[in-house]
Amino acid sequence: EAQVTQNPRYLITVTGKKLTVTCSQNMNHEYMSWYRQDPGLGLRQIYYSMNVEVTDKGDVPEGYKVSRKEKRNFPLILESPSPNQTSLYFCASRKGLAESYNEQFFGPGTRLTVL
Amino acid sequence: EDKVVQSPLSLVVHEGDTVTLNCSYEVTNFRSLLWYKQEKKAPTFLFMLTSSGIEKKSGRLSSILDKKELFSILNITATQTGDSAVYLCAVSSGNTGKLIFGQGTTLQVKP
Q1: S-S: B50 plus which of B32, B39, B59, B101, CB 3.0-4.6 Å?
Q2: For residue A61, is pLDDT > 90?
Q3: Residues of chain A contacting B44 with CB distance shorter than 8 Å
């Protein structure tokens, strides 16, 4: 089954404790991205990757890191989480940058709480 | 600054009603507009619109784009309780693949 998977699905942590949220897709998609969803603000892009070893900042990158060492995986790293990073996080992928590939496929989401 | 605005933010209707959800945008380098449905989990794709005036239709759902007036509408006819969800409008802008999302419209369909 074609899908985007994320782990963990739920996480409660404390300020300053480094964490990684994994994301993997099995559709051989070139493009992957991370979004956070907050009430009243919709989804906002954190980072994106057009292909392996190429990543760039989205609209809200502060406090986050990513890496794209292989096509299928795109982990999101919070080196020193803070309470304002409490949010619902989605990983998404799309086939490529061509206009016909604008549909993004979303993972199930990771609900993160930072105390 | 690019922005996408949806209205209303929430809506309560009864089964069988017809609803219209609105999405307006101010975005540089517009490429396409997408509608998603979100039911307490990941957004799922509904439509992608790139050309003005061409209606996209899937069952009871339809959508149309007006690139001159910079808006789109999503219509749902004969609503069912299973249509209850958050409906997200997003605009693809520029050549980075970024989607700019609106705040979403929460639709509740009562039996």
Answers
A1: B32
A2: yes
A3: 106
